[in-house]
Design brief:
The protein is mainly α and about 150 residues long. Helices cover about 75% and strands about 0% of the residues. It starts with a helix and ends with a helix.
């Protein structure tokens, strides 16, 4: 397998991952807004997770939807940037931005897990693993011989 092919496979993985996560969060939000029927089954469950964290602060319920919408926008940006990088795997200017955007998302989640003391769900461990996996992907791509 060539280095260029491995780079494309890794970029494809993260592009698909962020696309699927974005869509499952979007369906969650649309279901909560009654755009999708209550029987809609393919949702992320992240709205309830957000609610479990913000409830500790006494935040209003509508804020959870706004926060999820913000996450969806951030994930959409990451997905678009990964798809863009996949189309230009040898272009350094296209390669770094998706990692910066998505690693920043995981970093924010990790900090919020600590601030909101959300430990019982295992979310912090998941966020740390995703952050680490993505960082290792970026390091691997950067260390591969010239594309």
């Amino acid at each position: 397998m060539t280095e260029a092919r491995l780079t494309r496979i890794l970029l494809l993985f993260w592009a698909l991952y962020f696309t699927v996560v974005t869509l499952s969060n979007l369906t969650e939000l649309l279901k909560a807004l009654h755009v999708l029927p209550s029987t809609w089954f393919w949702v992320s469950g992240n709205l309830g997770f957000i609610g479990s964290g913000t409830a500790k602060l006494g935040a209003p319920l509508w804020l959870n939807r706004v926060l999820l919408a913000g996450v969806i926008a951030w994930e959409t940006a990451a997905a678009v940037l990964f798809w863009r990088a996949l189309g230009r795997p040898s272009d350094e200017a296209a390669l770094v931005p998706p990692f910066v955007v998505s690693l920043a998302l995981w970093a924010i989640f990790i900090v919020l897990d600590e601030v909101l003391l959300i430990f019982e769900t295992g979310a912090e461990a998941t966020h740390v693993r995703l952050f680490t996996a993505e960082l290792l992907t970026l390091i691997a791509i950067r260390l591969l011989p010239s594309r």
